[in-house]
Amino acid sequence: MKYIEKLHYITHDIPNLTHVEQAQKACEAGAKWIQYRCLSKTDDALLADIHAIAEVCDDWGTTLIVTNHIHLNGKADIQGFHIEDMDADFIALRKKVGNDITLGGSANTFENVVRLANESADYVGLGPFSATETKPNNYSILTLDDYHNTAKKLKELNLSLPILAVGGIKIYHVEALMRTGIYGVAVSGAINFADDFIQAYEDFYEAVKL
């Protein structure tokens, strides 16, 4: 089984920090997993970002995951991809990238999670947990019971897939979420827009370990 961190930090297009600066701050705070999420740039601009972030991640021993853009595999030091398309064929994607690359997927229902587990995904981002401006969508908001039931049913089916809650998660949500039996959380806005970025990251890191 591949290494999957319990706290996934996700970069985002924000006015006050570039993606590279976000990655640098996250690594300084102790991040061991960074998901570069940029859907607004050309391939050349994406690769410029990714090369710079990969250097930062290499310095700190941090895993670099890229959201979507799987066509960039092999063009930079990328350890994996997170695919947001809930209908994506992970069997085909796995054949395309091979077994060494980490592949994560997004899900909103238990059925989504089971399919990803059966199609060789390495982890799943399940959400949204609450409304988020970082990634607006029309998917149903999930409850603590939804996370608990998903983790329980997955275990009953003898399916092993790390579940991370995602979508509008604040620090005060983490303890209750972790008690549902999920593996961890993915966070962007609550860290990026905090008064103290590094302290916010450290607070989340401590919370997921409880």
Structure characterization notes:
- This is Thiamine phosphate synthase.
- One of its GO terms (molecular function) is thiamine-phosphate diphosphorylase activity.
- With 210 residues, the protein is α/β, with parallel strands linked by helices.
- It has a single domain, classed as Aldolase class I (TIM Barrel), CATH 3.20.20.70.
- It contains eight helices and eight strands; from the N terminus they run βαβαββαβαβαβαβαα.
- α1 packs parallel to α2.
- The mean pLDDT is 96.
CATH class: Alpha Beta
CATH superfamily: Aldolase class I
Nearest-angstrom radius of gyration?
16 Å
How many discrete domains?
1
Gap between N and C termini, in Å? 23 Å
CATH topology: TIM Barrel
Largest sheet, in brief, is:
8 strands, parallel, barrel
CATH architecture: Alpha-Beta Barrel
Q: Percentage of helical residues?
A: 25-40%
Concise summary:
Helices cover 38% and strands 17% of the residues.
Could you give the topology of this structure?
Blueprint: E1 7-10, H1 19-28, E2 33-36, H2 43-60, E3 63-67, E4 80-83, H3 90-97, E5 102-107, H4 110-118, E6 123-126, H5 144-156, E7 163-166, H6 174-178, E8 184-187, H7 189-192, H8 197-209
Parallel strand pairs: 1-2, 1-8, 2-3, 3-4, 4-5, 5-6, 6-7, 7-8
Helix pairs in contact: 1-2
Domain Thiamine phosphate synthase/TenI: 10-191
Keywords: Thiamine biosynthesis
Pathway: Cofactor biosynthesis; thiamine diphosphate biosynthesis
